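Worked example

This section walks through a single chain of length 313. The input is the sequence exactly as stored; nothing has been trimmed or padded.
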Amino acid sequence: MTAGLQRATLIFGLGLVGVFVLAALFAPLIAPYGFAQSASDGVDFVRQQAPSAQHWFGTSVRGEDVFSRVIYGARTALWVITISLLLSLLVGVPLGLLSGYIGRWLDRVLVLFMDAMYAFPTLLLAIVVSIVVAGGRSTSFGGVLSAAMAITAVFVPQYFRVVRNATVAVKQEPYVDAARVTGASTTRILFRHIFANVTQSLPVIVTLNGSEAILTLAGLGFLGFGIEPTQAAEWGFDLNKALSDVSNGIWWTGIFPGVAIVLVVLGMTLVGESLNEVLNPILRTRRAVSVAAGDSIADPVGRDIGGKDTTHG
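Given that input, the structure is written out below as tokens.
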């Protein structure tokens, strides 16, 4: 369903996302050291060592292998993305269906609450939720869960608004009225008849939110509200610790985590934009019209753009 630049963009984005997922899944096999390891065979690593054969990306100010932390950081990011998106879908989609279909006071209350959350500054909301959920605990699972919950609070209003507006638009359609007349329950109508017709844009939103989750997680880590470095590797935290290295000419502690964030966000954004062009019926129709017009203009000399033979007057 894709061609030309759009296909190249989609393939390139999928390639970046594929590398990210593989690095996350096989991090223990790819990384030569642990994410918090600063010694090997009883010998401490040289702190802030430049990239070498032993440490491909150099070492950090704490003596950790930067390459290993970048690889394990992909695993942390994948966990946070997966948990946050699943929670957002499980909460936002049912609430959007109920609000749009039932309406009345329930719709007014939910819309007011979700609009208030949506209007709240994204990163500040994530920080507040992270503090509340973490409760001062910095275990590996607790840190990942608190970061995922913080990002979930940001995403739920988005899914709610999309699903709710789509539900309001289709709940008066004839097939919904027919299901209601036959005595179908509200649950059956919502999840059997309406759900499939209001979630067509969710794959695009999920993909784009994946890149936003990476940036929010990095922001939390950079500001010190993310995951402790001894519990899991996190790119935002590593960027924060690399700030003091820049003035001393130590570039590798910040460049590689930063490049990892850029590449993953770029890949997910490219995939999301390409999926939007494929799944969006309006963009698909425009593309089909453009292709048809281009094929007609490309006809051999002697035919006009409508395909009429003009060689004989």
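What to look for: The two ends are 39 Å apart (CA to CA).
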